Write the structure tokens for this entry.
Amino acid sequence: MLYPSVRGGYSAQVIPKAMDTNEAKCYFPESWAGKPQQQLPEISGIPTLTFCHNSRFLISAGKLEDAYLACRKAMETQAP
């Protein structure tokens, strides 16, 4: 789910597999988890990616297009 962040830019959160669980359908890549803001663009290939939660359920980016790209990359890395 993508949405404008109260801190500026955009955020995206994972969607749960079911209403009664915290397990997500798809997580953001493990290689992004908890990395410093300065390293994320290089690691991810997403220019304005600024945050990825340690638990990989939330990201933030400066541009809507980059938040969307982060979601696409997450889905691609977990595709069967």
